[in-house]
């Protein structure tokens, strides 16, 4: 439950902060938290170049969610394709290096060779795929699909009848009430986008 808060004297940023904290607490209470496995090592092909390109891709996707123009979507698609190409090339190089190392270890250090094979089998068993189901029950794995599902969920949540009633009682003056309703509608649109991004990114990290 969201604690009752007097938001009449808060500006948009302050109201957003209150709602964000309440929503995050609700998600943690509902979904719980997990601890990172310290034994799970990062993949060899993940490097700073890929990390930076992925950050750019996520930023472009957020920009597209906020301003849905063809130009923004095309920029996002170009960056997404660039990330795929960089990852593909880096993976290929990583596998070549890995194959060379395995061949060398097999001939010079068989104990290390079999330890690596055992590690590969263990990591495969522990690996999990982060995914959610949409309202139709379809399993989603892609980042953009997961973010869009969160966005639709909070759009529906924040546009419910309960939300409309709370808007109607804001302010005693009719003119103030109309201005507040416009401001809250604008704030709701921002909240929907920001929360969907916040949850999807924390889910995909």
Gist of the model:
The chain is mainly α and 205 residues long. It has helices spanning 12-31, 48-66, 70-108, 110-126, 143-158, 161-168, 174-204, and strands spanning 132-133, 139-140. The chain is extended, with a radius of gyration of 23 Å.
What does this structure look like?
This protein has a two-stranded antiparallel ribbon with strand order 1-2. The protein is mainly alpha-helical and 205 residues long. The chain is 73% helix and 2% strand. The two termini are 26 Å apart. The longest helix has 39 residues. A hairpin with a 5-residue loop joins strand 1 and strand 2. Helix 1 packs across helix 7, helix 2 packs antiparallel against helix 3 and helix 3 packs antiparallel against helix 4. The chain folds into two domains: 84 residues, no CATH class; 75 residues, no CATH class.
Helix and strand arrangement:
Blueprint: H1 12-31, H2 48-66, H3 70-108, H4 110-126, E1 132-133, E2 139-140, H5 143-158, H6 161-168, H7 174-204
